[in-house]
Design goal:
There is one protein chain. The chain is an alpha+beta fold and 454 residues long. It has two domains: 272 residues, Bira Bifunctional Protein, Domain 2 (BirA Bifunctional Protein, domain 2, 2-Layer Sandwich); 86 residues, Rossmann fold (3-Layer(aba) Sandwich), CATH 3.40.50. Helix content is 36%, strand content 21%. The protein contains 15 helices and 18 strands. It has an eight-stranded mixed β-sheet, sandwiched between helices. Strands 15-14-16-17-18 form a five-stranded mixed β-sheet, sandwiched between helices. Strands 2-4-3 form a three-stranded antiparallel β-sheet. Strand 10 and strand 11 form a beta hairpin. Helix 1 runs antiparallel to helix 5 and helix 5 runs parallel beside helix 9. The N and C termini lie far apart (58 Å). It binds histidyl-adenosine monophosphate. Histidyl-adenosine monophosphate binds next to strand 6, strand 12, strand 13 and helix 11.
């Protein structure tokens, strides 16, 4: 075996989710599945890697995600594969491949799992991150645009997040976009020298993406650029109007952001991103503070606050042409993705209280070799009877074990010594009063249940 010179660390941009943090993940996953299932979404799990061509065709070859951020590799069989940078493309592929076109439409699917992007890691931006996605495929009714946004907001509210705002825009269909493209070119071409290097390239490849640039000098030019919303065709205009009317009815807080274009080629019509407006932040001193979102960040896994630009909790939009583009029938669709690492970071920052995953009521203390031999079986009997039990079997001293019981905050401790093990009895200790009684071992489950009921 090769000798390692220094300890191997977690790869850059990835992190371990430790037991103390799992309560957040459990809460988020259960809120997601409760809300998704009650809105009629069925769970789908697609592979964590797909043929690279899938992402090139759907997300787009000239996008940052495909061009710069994909983990791509050649398999031993010579196939070009990529770790999934996002979930929508895989779901659209699965929809076609599994004949879901023949099911009653629309088909509503949700998923959760890790995604991979080679990004410059920073607070809230990782190379392996976790997303939940909701997709509604096979219907172009604007109510479904509102439904995915509503489901997103409901999930966040179930998780105790406050002050959400949805930034809304429409990027139209192919028809209105081609008119708008000419308008953009007319505006940007004379100003090309002032653009950043990426935008100079975008001007040739996909001018719409100029509106997505976060570089200071491009932001300044963007302020006076034409808005697509002023160049929509009749159909796109009424679609967007209807989506906003549905949002008004559900009282979802939103604002219009005419420069929101999103980074993937598959989007059409509605696009949106969800942010926290004013964050109630728990400061380093443990007290809540309120800061503008622009000044802070969500830091998945670290409760300390950092200062940087605001990050979206999630986003999404319509992708009416994707299924057809991938070889399926015409199946207009809409969906959203939530960044779970950011959602959990935001829960911590807003001081959301999350119950522990496991809270034992009873602690099993063993003393002596015979007792130790019997305690594993007894532990399992208690567990099977639905009693939440804890132990510290490696410790032999009663003092140490009772201290552990105290730390766990149990109501009762069971003490099984050598004598008790021989006599077939066990001591039940009330942790609050310290009172003890000896009871027959065979009746312990019944006795515990009665005591815990009180
Ligand atoms: P996206 O905006 O690329 O959309 O990602 C959705 C969310 O995933 C982001 O808003 C963010 O919260 C989180 N996220 C993205 N990249 C990272 C990262 N490097 N580190 C941490 N979190 C990250 C999509 O992926 C689309 N598939 C959403 C969608 C579904 N559109 C239609 N259906």
């Amino acid at each position: 075996m090769a000798k390692i010179k220094k300890p191997i660390q977690v790869p850059k941009g990835t992190f371990d989710i430790l037991p103390d943090d799992q309560k957040y993940w459990k809460k988020v996953r259960s809120a997601v599945s409760d809300v998704a299932q009650s809105y009629g979404f069925g769970r789908i799990d697609t592979p964590m890697f797909e043929y690279s061509d899938l992402y090139m065709a759907s997300v787009g070859e000239a996008t940052d995600v495909v061009e710069k951020q994909m983990y791509s590799f050649k398999s031993k069989g010579g196939d070009m594969l990529s770790l999934r940078p996002e979930g929508t493309a895989g779901v659209a592929r699965a929809y076609i491949e599994n004949g879901m076109t023949n099911l009653p439409q629309p088909v509503k699917l949700y998923y959760t799992g890790p995604m991979f992007r080679y990004e410059q890691p920073q607070a809230g931006r990782f190379r392996q991150f976790h997303q939940v996605g909701l997709e509604i495929i096979g219907d172009m009714d604007p109510i479904y645009d509102a439904e995915v946004i509503n489901a997103f907001v409901v999930i966040c509210r179930e998780l105790g997040l406050q002050n959400l705002n949805v930034e809304m825009n429409t990027i139209g269909c192919n028809k209105c976009r081609s008119d708008f493209r000419s308008q953009l070119l007319r505006y940007y071409k004379p100003r090309a020298a002032k653009l950043c290097r990426d935008c100079k390239r975008r001007l040739k490849e996909n001018p719409l993406r100029l509106l997505d640039c976060k570089e200071e000098k491009c932001e300044q030019l963007k302020a006076h650029a034409p808005n697509l919303i002023d160049h929509l065709c009749e159909e796109c205009h009424s679609h967007f109007k209807a989506v906003l009317e549905y949002l008004d009815e559900t009282e979802i807080p939103y604002s219009l952001n005419p420069h929101l274009v999103r980074g993937f080629d598959y989007y059409t019509k509605t696009v949106f991103e969800v942010f926290l407006e004013d964050e109630h932040i728990v400061g380093d001193d443990g007290h809540p503070r309120t800061e503008k979102a622009e000044q802070s960040s969500y830091d998945g896994g670290n409760e300390k606050t950092h200062r940087r630009s605001k990050l979206a909790l999630g986003g999404g939009g319509r992708y009416d042409n994707l299924v057809k583009l991938l070889g399926g029938k015409d199946a207009p669709a809409v969906g959203t993705g939530l960044g779970l690492d950011r959602v959990i970071g935001a829960m911590k920052q807003q001081g959301v209280k999350v119950p522990p995953i496991y809270k034992p009521d009873v602690f099993l203390v063993q003393l002596g070799a015979l007792s130790k031999k019997k305690c594993l079986k007894l532990y399992e009997e208690l567990r099977q009877a639905g009693i939440a039990v804890a132990e510290s079997f490696g410790k032999d001293s009663i003092k140490t074990q009772l201290r552990a019981a105290d730390r766990d905050g149990v109501i009762l401790s069971l003490i099984l010594g050598q004598k008790e093990a021989i006599d077939g009895v066990i001591i039940v200790r009330d942790m609050a009063s310290g009172a003890q009684e000896t009871v027959p071992l065979e009746k312990i489950v019944k006795i515990l249940k009665e005591k815990l009921k009180k």
